[in-house]
Amino acid sequence: MKAVLQKSFDKTLFLDNVKRHLTSTYATTVENATTRAWYLAMSRALAELTTFDLLETEQDERILNAKSVNYLSLEFLIGRLTGNNLLNMGVYESIGEAVAELGLDLSDLLEEERDPSLGNGGLGRLAACFMDSLAAQEFPAVGYGLHYEYGLFKQSFEACHQKEAPDAWCGIEGYPWEVARPELAQQIGFYGYVTTETVDGQEKRKWVPGMTVMGMPWDIPVVGYKSETVYPLRLWECRALAPFSLESFNNGNYFEAQHTLIDAGNITKVLYPNDNHEKGKTLRLMQQYFHSAASIRDILRRHESVGHPLAELPQYETIQLNDTHPAIAIPELMRIFIDERNMSWEEAWEICSRTFAYTNHTLLPEALETWDESLIQRLLPRHMEIIYEINHRFLQEVREKWPGDGDKQQKLSIIQDGFHRMVRMANLCVVGSYAVNGVAALHSALVKQDLFPEFHELYPNRLMNVTNGITPRRWLQYCNPGLSHLISEKIGDNWPVALDELAQLAQWADDDEFQQAFMAVKKENKARLAKWVKTNMDIELNTDAIFDVQIKRLHEYKRQHLNMLHILSLYYRLLNRPDFDMVPRVFIFAAKAAPGYYLAKEIIYAINKIAEKINSDDRVNDKLKVVFIPDYRVSMAEIIIPAADVSEQISTAGKEASGTGNMKMALNGALTIGTMDGANVEIREEVGDENIYIFGLEVEDVNRLKASGYNPFDYYNADPLLKASLDLLNGEEFTPGEPRKLRATYESLLDGGDPYLVLADFASYIEAHGQIDAQYRDTAGWAKKAILNTALVGKFSSDRSIRDYVNHIWKLKSVPR
Ligand SMILES: *Cc1c(COP(=O)(O)O)cnc(C)c1O
Q1: Which residues carry this modification: N6-(pyridoxal phosphate)lysine (predicted)?
Q2: Could you tell me the end-to-end alpha-carbon distance of the chain, in angstroms, rounded to an integer?
Q3: 543-776 carries CATH number 1.10.150.20
């Protein structure tokens, strides 16, 4: 049916379907339909086609008998689907023409879609890119996530402060791209107790849950690139098993009976908004178990529906854990095997430990998940027993390897001893997985060296690297049509599925005509962003200025405040040094702070106050503009990234596991200013030293400086420009009549000890920006560098990441349809 759509698109039939949905699904008429109603009806008509292909793919005998990957993630930051799916389905142009016949503009319709923001940042976006690349390359896959009622909060600014509002992404009409699969619903238990039963003379443990909820799956189609392959992204929604207990209802306890209903609905009510930070809340653990249990059951259902024996699970299914968030899936699978399927421990463990693989995303100690043993004990009593047994057997191995070494046992134990005993989820994952990977070469090396050195000794082949990637379909072809057309004119249109082919562009890096065309596209993209900023924020931007972009979650380790200090230093020099000259710059920020992260919110406040002052200061604002774009999300990134000249990737060395924003901007022809951190290291390897601005301390320097007793005041007192910039921040320049109103940031950098070494990297950062300023003046030289960035970052396609997983970890075969 899709083939019909692609090869001989029937305009009349499609428009009839849209109109049918307009009336039968959305109860409106052609005459009365709003743009929103047209968008909904169009998307429904398209979703009908992808649902058909999804069911066909699901029932394909060859796929049922091939190995699949199950990608378990609490987050999928998918962004808008309609436009991207049109592109993947190969009908973007024809649908544009079709809706034009109705007097509608396709891009207006696409603007009606609200982003499904079912993730915080990089980790969730990675999961979305991976699903796209799995479908594009037809490696059998199912994505398993949660159907949050509210995604990541919407951000606005009130008097320069971040304000959060709930994000009801489904809208009141429901999301047109999802389809409920009630026949695949699952029941999930919580709480209760464990008993011993004797079955056939054998003692068996049995969990009797005290509360049971229903998991309702919603499928979102993941559309293969110009193929009929459509895989499900299966999102579980938690519902009460029955509307309420009839018994209590009859007893007159109506409100009490409703209680269970409210509890169940709570579990998938809202996405936890913390990026790289773990808060040990009961409801979060309930989300994790709900997600794992429903997904594991669905995987076993699929496996057994074709008659495959459980013992052969690892031949047909592999389960990738996106961070430790779904770690509880490991004891859950053990519990099902042992308690429900009568396997021995040894048999169950043999299967289990060849099924799971785990991706580590961070070394930050505050982000490594631990759960109160007492909390797991109460919520999941049988799982706690199984975790003890896994640990008991594992520690025996440790004792054999290092006899008499109590420290080793303490360090490696899944249970962290102390007044409150804690379960270390990362240790559980390493012990229970056949492969563990970091997400960039440097990060994976640090995982081996610093995070899990003993595990690496014990299991020398388990730890590996798979460098992250981004899907070139969304992050170049879709978001930057101007550049895409220019590229295809030169090298043909196969690059979206073979991104290394971009390397051919290097032959025109010095070509005058190509340089001009390339920079003309950049300029159009800057104008598109400037128009958005003018319309939505009423700020005028000069598109001849350098667009200097930092867009990512707000976190101290990402050092938006280092960027801020650079801006302050420019402002200071413009006002106080008559001979200071600079190319005009527009600084663009976009970032959400976790609602409970005080300093992050203060940094947003400070940047907004600085922007307010600078943008209305006629002494400087032909040179300097600062824009903090509210509500950073995928659809906003799609407008900002193609417009970037400079990409800020300035985390403290050793703290950013990979980054993917760095890849998106380099691919779109921005030059990176960055530290030797995460994937910056590999971007530099690809584009060459002349085409990137590397500055600052490296990991070893950071360790050495910290060990020797870092004192930020040494830098403050020794560097007059740094001192002037910090003092400017702490005065009343940006908060007239209220000096020291921005002191939270100032104090964290001085009295607070500057934990992320902002001051230590300041001088080197300023110097790198000086080079950018100098080299941007050489128009041809800059164009060459920009072209070479686009040409040389083909490695960072998520298609390559997926092939790495496939070849080194999952061992799947592609099943083309
Ligand atoms: C790519 C992306 C991120 C990750 O950005 P980093 O710079 O790698 O932290 C976060 N949020 C959104 C919306 C993205 O598209």
Answers
A1: 664
A2: 13
A3: no
- For tokens 């960055």, name the residue: 674
Pair 42, 82: CB distance under 8 Å: yes
66-79+115-178+216-238+269-386+416-465+803-809, superfamily in CATH?
Glycogen Phosphorylase B; (3.40.50.2000)
Atom of ligand 1 nearest to the CA of 658: 8
CA 501 to mean position of chain CA atoms: 26
Percentage of the chain beyond pLDDT 70 is 96
What is the residue-averaged pLDDT of the chain? Answer: 96
Residue 699 tokens, joined:
């990991």
Angle formed at CA 452 by CA 450 and CA 458, multiple of 5 degrees: 130
Of the residues 75, 76, 77, which should be mutated to test ligand 1's pocket, given the most ligand atoms within 8 Å of the CB? 77
Q: Is the separation of the CB atoms in 621 and 614 below 8 Å?
A: yes
Q: Which atom of ligand 1 is nearest to the CA of 634?
A: 13
279 among known catalytic residues: no
Residue 261 has pLDDT above 80, yes or no: no
Q: Which of 153, 167, 551, 559 to mutate to test the pocket of ligand 1 (most atoms within 8 A of CB)?
A: 551
Q: Are 93 and 20 in contact (CB under 8 A)?
A: no
553 is catalytic: yes
Catalytic residue among 474, 522, 601, 664: 664
- Return the domain boundaries, the chain: 1-60+80-113, 66-79+115-178+216-238+269-386+416-465+803-809, 543-776
- The CA 369 to ligand 1 mean position distance, Å, reads 22
Summarised one tens digit per residue, pLDDT across range 652-684 is 999 999 999 999 999 999 999 999 999 999 999
Ligand 1 atom closest to Cα of residue 558: 9
Q: Does residue 5 surpass a pLDDT of 70?
A: no
Rounded to the nearest angstrom, the distance between the alpha carbon of 343 and the centre of ligand 1 is 43
